[in-house]
Design a protein that fits this description.
Bound molecules: pyridoxal-5'-phosphate
Shape: globular
Number of helices: 13
Radius of gyration: 24 Å
């Protein structure tokens, strides 16, 4: 008896020892050169912004994606706030955007007093459905902000045509969209302005970080001024004016050289990062497509016009309850999957201000979408554990549904 007790104790110990490490949702990628470049910036004695590493990052984006003018910022939120200032958004201007997005997309314009007019997503894809845009346009509409969810392009030809017809600006919230394309054009190069994020959860990171892309030349000079606290310091540095001072509104939007140095070390490895992430994405897709059904989940849809930068791998479950059970089941197995945005039109901040229609597609993604672990270092074995756990969840679910039917 005693022996049995000891044997089971030892066995349980071995089981705990064997217990694998939890599978995180995200692990920030490091190229290995970040500290070297940061020390280079320190050695040069240039730590504030708009110096060598900032120039190198700007040059990278110009050469790689043909972005005419870029300005690194301390976040995508900052880049969006710069966009709202540049478009001269005034109280009561109306801005159309999807409700299925991060708060910063809306906050940037709310800070200038604008009213946000929320549009719905497609039924099978979280991006803004262009059909839902035109009925929302009024005399007060100033801009359309699109969000390329998961780095997958919105239908930009249709959206740009609507904007042209009604004389509106288009801002691309390209927070997740680095190295992704619409009919071969890089995302971020199509709207009048675009904002990227280099937050630690993105494909390319600098801790916190972002970038404004200025595609419309009319905004180029003023963008630099807003970026540099409302001064013409950039022009002074280039020797275009003999002193610099306060010429407009602005803020401290530019990041330090330490952040730019970190980012540059990542950008140099963009191709490697992308190919690794795409392989992981494809592996999830190949395994999980075998069990897609109306009882399990649907998979991301990539329209013909869009590329996939493998920023997010998501599933859409049939309802909120199943999504929560699914996340819990994975978490009980030490796998961290997470949901994403909550409908902004139903948020505590906007609920009472929202006068529009129901947005059922947005609400469905808010309730049913779940993101799986996806990061550079996620290795094949771990990915297999994630997909096995998912299969197990649906087998158990099916068995319990069948036994409920039999009762
Ligand atoms: C669509 C979207 N826009 C803006 C942001 C804000 O980005 P940041 O954290 O760089 O300010 C996020 C954050 O993930 C986002 O998902």
């Amino acid at each position: 008896m005693e022996f049995e007790f000891i044997a089971s104790f030892v066995q349980s110990k071995i089981r705990t020892m064997k217990k694998r490490e939890k599978i995180r949702f995200n692990k920030p990628y490091l190229s290995g050169k970040e500290l070297y470049y940061i020390s280079k910036a320190i050695y040069r004695g240039h730590l504030s912004g708009n110096r060598e590493f900032t120039f190198e990052c700007h040059e990278f984006f110009k050469l790689r994606f043909g972005f005419k003018k870029t300005l690194l910022t301390t976040s995508c939120t900052d880049a969006l706030e710069m966009a709202a200032i540049l478009l001269d958004i005034k109280p009561d201007d109306e801005i159309i955007m999807p409700s299925y997005t991060f708060v910063s997309t809306a906050n940037a314009f709310v800070l200038r007093g604008a009213r946000i007019i929320f549009a719905d997503s497609y039924s099978d894809n979280p991006n803004i459905d262009p059909i839902s845009i035109e009925p929302l346009i009024t005399k007060k509409t100033k801009a359309i902000v699109v969000v390329h969810y998961a780095g997958i392009a919105c239908d930009m030809d249709v959206i740009m045509a609507i904007a042209k017809r009604h004389n509106l600006y288009v801002v691309e919230d390209a927070a997740q969209a680095i190295d992704s394309y619409y009919k071969g054009k890089p995302l971020g190069s199509i709207g009048h302005l675009a904002a990227f994020s280099f937050h630690e959860t993105k494909n390319v990171i600098s801790g916190e970080g972002g970038m404004l892309v200025i595609n419309d030349d009319r905004f180029a000079t003023r963008a630099e001024i807003i970026w540099e606290k409302g001064t013409n310091r950039s022009a002074f540095f280039r020797g275009e004016v003999d002193k610099y001072g306060w010429v407009d509104i602005g803020s401290s939007f530019l990041p330090s050289e330490i952040i730019a140095a970190f980012l540059y070390a990542q950008l140099e490895n963009l191709d490697d990062i992308q190919s690794k992430r795409k392989a992981i994405w494809k592996q999830y897709y190949e395994v999980l497509k075998e069990i897609v059904s109306s009882d399990t989940f649907s998979l991301p849809i990539i329209p013909d016009y869009a590329s996939n930068n493998a920023h997010i791998f998501y599933l859409v479950l049939p309802n909120l309850e199943q999504r929560q059970n699914f996340i819990k089941y994975l978490r009980d197995n030490d796998i961290y999957a997470v949901f994403h945005y909550l409908s902004l039109h139903k948020s505590p901040f906007y609920y009472n201000k929202y006068k529009g229609k129901e947005l059922p597609n947005c609400d469905r993604f808010a309730d049913c979408l779940v993101r799986l672990p996806l990061f550079y270092e996620l290795h094949y074995k771990q990915q297999e554990e994630v997909t096995n756990c998912i299969l197990e969840f649906f087998i158990k679910n099916r068995t319990s549904n069948l036994s409920n039917l039999e009762k």
